[in-house]
């Protein structure tokens, strides 16, 4: 939706559906109001045209009767039957039979008093005196549809102006509707940017010092356990920091695409999260096919895999399992965790979407995964059964 892009708002799926419904309702009522107005205007113009034409025919008929009277009283035989290029007349007697007509194909017997069709308008008058034994005078005029053409022009013009006005009004109403949401998202984005900036130095310091510790030389198991916990915490913070950085700098990141061997990279990322998985006694079972290569930025691919693995560990149960499968067509990661409600599956990739508040996070991980998949035209799908399993599949 262009207005959302102009406002730089990334709405969750549910909010988008609500907004689409409101806009659809707005457009529907606009069309209904426009249709009723057009119908009323057309009816009024048609009645006005008929009224004007009736007056015109009445005036001509009165004039025609005067000429006919002169013809009736003419003793010199110099007067001729009155004719007009625009009006055609027919005279009928008491038995409704034709006496005389200027029509090329006149009706021999008058069976209808009045009628109007798409081409002609008939007007019937009964003279007070029977001129030439005439009891009915029928006057016909070709309907040039000038009123209709003018009416259509006005309808098109004013309907266009009305529709443009309603579109402009709708745009401002959408702005008004989205303003509180925009302010909230702006506040959240500002918080994320500030948080990212503040996390940079401490995260780098913690990670560097953890890597410098020689764990094999530590004999105190309690101390080693504490260090491992610090390592897990540092990696969790580092992963969140990387997510925030990617989110903030996404439009400024220049991709360095190269051929990446997926099996090797997946094994590295599994090793990276091994301590976190071991703390929950989660078994990682990987079936990885060799020789599967993608042309992609290595950092973005690592970010994609990290977020999927992180979620598989975070939302898994203690002593659970993670199954990783890789072949030439797809990569799938399946856990034995809490699962996801079916009604939430369509919203899993929305930014800030969180349906389980028992664990930490900003709700941006899968949104980043979706962004990377969209950039490299990869298909991603989530299947789940509540309280049993969740499977994320990426198709190449």
UniProtKB/TrEMBL annotation:
Which PROSITE patterns does the entry link to? HIS_KIN
Q: Report the enzyme's class at the first EC level.
A: transferase
Establish whether keyword Phosphoprotein is in the entry: yes
| Recorded GO MF terms | phosphoprotein phosphatase activity; phosphorelay sensor kinase activity
GO CC annotation, single: plasma membrane
- One protein family per Pfam: HATPase_c
Instruction: Please give the start and end residues of each transmembrane region.
Output: 20-43, 155-178
Q: Spell out the reaction equation it catalyses.
A: ATP + protein L-histidine = ADP + protein N-phospho-L-histidine
Query: GO BP, one example?
Result: cellular response to phosphate starvation
Q: Which Enzyme Commission number(s) are on file for it?
A: 2.7.13.3
Keyword Transcription assigned to the entry: answer is no
Q: Where is the Histidine kinase domain?
A: 194-396
Q: Which UniProt keywords apply?
A: Kinase, Membrane, Phosphoprotein, Transferase, Transmembrane, Transmembrane helix, Two-component regulatory system
Please state what the protein is called. Answer: histidine kinase
The uppermost taxa in this organism's lineage are: Bacteria, Pseudomonadati, Campylobacterota, Epsilonproteobacteria, Campylobacterales
């Amino acid at each position: 939706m262009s207005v959302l892009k102009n406002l730089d708002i990334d709405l969750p799926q549910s909010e988008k559906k609500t907004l689409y419904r409101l806009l659809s309702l707005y457009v529907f009522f606009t069309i209904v109001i426009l249709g009723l107005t057009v119908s009323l205007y057309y009816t009024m113009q048609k009645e006005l045209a008929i009224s004007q034409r009736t007056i015109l025919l009445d005036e001509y008929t009165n004039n025609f009767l005067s000429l006919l009277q002169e013809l009736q009283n003419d003793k010199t035989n110099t007067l001729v039957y009155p004719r007009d290029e625009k009006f055609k007349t027919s005279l009928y007697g008491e038995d409704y039979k034709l006496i005389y007509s200027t029509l090329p194909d006149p009706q021999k017997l008058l069976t209808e008093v009045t009628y109007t069709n798409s081409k002609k308008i008939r007007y019937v008058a009964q003279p007070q005196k029977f001129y030439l034994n005439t009891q009915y005078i029928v006057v016909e005029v070709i309907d040039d549809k000038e009123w209709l053409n003018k009416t259509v022009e006005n309808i098109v013009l004013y309907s266009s102006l009305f529709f443009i006005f309603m579109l402009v009004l709708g745009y401002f109403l959408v702005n008004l509707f989205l303003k509180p949401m925009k302010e909230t998202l702006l506040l959240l984005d500002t918080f994320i940017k500030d948080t990212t900036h503040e996390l940079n130095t401490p995260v780098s310091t913690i990670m560097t010092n953890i890597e410098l510790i020689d764990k094999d030389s530590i004999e105190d198991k309690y101390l080693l356990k504490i260090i491992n916990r610090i390592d897990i915490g540092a990696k969790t913070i580092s992963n969140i920091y990387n997510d925030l950085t990617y989110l903030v700098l996404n439009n400024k990141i220049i991709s360095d695409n190269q051929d990446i061997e997926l099996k090797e990279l997946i094994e590295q990322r599994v090793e990276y999260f091994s301590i976190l998985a071991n703390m929950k006694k989660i078994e990682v079972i990987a079936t990885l096919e060799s020789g599967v290569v993608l042309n992609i930025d290595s950092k973005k691919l690592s970010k994609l895999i990290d977020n999927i693995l992180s979620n598989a560990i975070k939302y898994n149960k203690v002593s659970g399992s993670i199954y990783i499968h890789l072949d030439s067509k797809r990569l799938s990661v399946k856990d034995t965790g809490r699962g996801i409600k079916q009604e939430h599956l369509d919203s899993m990739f929305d930014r800030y979407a969180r349906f389980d508040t028992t664990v930490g996070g900003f709700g941006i991980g899968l949104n980043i995964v979706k962004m990377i998949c969209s950039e490299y035209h990869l298909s991603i799908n989530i299947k789940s059964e509540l309280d049993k399993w969740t499977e994320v599949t990426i198709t190449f």
